[in-house]
Amino acid sequence: MIxxxxxxxxxxxxxxxxxxxxxxAQSILAGSGKENAGVRVFIKSGGCSGFQYGMAIDDRExxxxxxxxxxxVKLVVDQASxxxxxxxxxxxxxxxxxxxxxxxxxxxxSSCGCGHSFRTDGANAPEGQGASCGGGGL
Length: 138
Description:
Blueprint: E1 4-5, E2 15-17, H1 19-30, E3 38-45, E4 51-58, E5 66-70, E6 73-77, H2 79-85, E7 88-95, E8 98-104, E9 110-111, E10 117-119
Parallel strand pairs: 1-5, 2-7, 3-6
Antiparallel strand pairs: 3-4, 4-10, 5-6, 7-8, 9-10
């Protein structure tokens, strides 16, 4: 069974999306051509601080996924990423260099300058990782 949270549910704060982030996500999802698609938010090893955020449009719901509906957007988080993303907010940020999605993560104890890579509990980057600062897919 895939855990699902809905507004007002006890787990509704697993992850949220800002109003501006929701507006941008809804526009992207509407143009994706994928029925019942959501924004998959995940963590992978790498980046200058040890972990990187990733995002993708996904119409799959896999075993162990947690589904959160916030501001009309379906957010999908895999079981392995959930612990590192719990309490995070997805946002969309525009600046002079362009715009893109970002994650405001209360679990990150440090991050690199680009904001796509982070570390928790002062841990060092995994062996062989951390050479570059990279971003996600959405």
